[in-house]
Amino acid sequence: xxxxxxxxxxxxxxxxxxxxxxxxxxxxxxxxxxxxxxxxxxxxxxxxxxxxxxxxxxxxxxxxxxxxxxxxxxxxxxxxxxxxxxxxxxxxxxxxxxxxxxxxxxxxxxxxxxxxxxxxxxxxxxxxxxxxxxxxxxxxxxxxxxxxxxxxxxxxxxxxxxxxxxxxxxxxxxxxxxxxxxxxxxxxxxxxxxxxxxxxxxxxxxxxxxx
Length: 211
Prior knowledge:
The protein has helices at 38-49, 61-70, 87-96, 117-122, 135-203, and strands spanning 30-34, 54-58, 75-79, 105-110, 127-131. It has 211 residues and is an alpha/beta fold. The protein has a domain at 30-160: Rossmann fold. The protein starts with 29 loop residues before the first strand and ends in an 8-residue tail after the last helix. Keywords: Coiled coil, DNA-binding, Phosphoprotein, Transcription, Transcription regulation, Two-component regulatory system.
């Protein structure tokens, strides 16, 4: 259903569905919009593009899943009420994929729709927006969850660096122990040879202590 929206002039853009445009150096992040109503896509696209976000579109659930698998976005705005595959099902599929489970998903729902907020969070959504949209609210929630996702990734990367550092330190410790064990074994073998030579000298009636 087409719902009323905040006052924003919109225009139809020529765009390949599900294909990510080349991201500019000053991009604020990539956002995938999933909605079967083109007017919704146009309004959100213009609002987010003007703030420096790279915007991609999908008009149904299956197209959204293909787009996410081909090139995961930084955040997804996902409509709930769609034909064939609703937003809950799309979210569940994304969260089952190890490569995409951490993408923040914000659900979109009209105030007149039956919206199960508990289910939205259970399937993996991080937030929701109600139609008609408020521009400030959309931008604030998008920015908040992008920042949260960035911080979580940074934390995970830091943990991985610490783990790698610990593993390297353990490897160095093992290598050092092996080297010391080898040096000790060589020293023991050297002493054994000296003792054998001293025994032979004594058998010959010679004093091994004499120079």
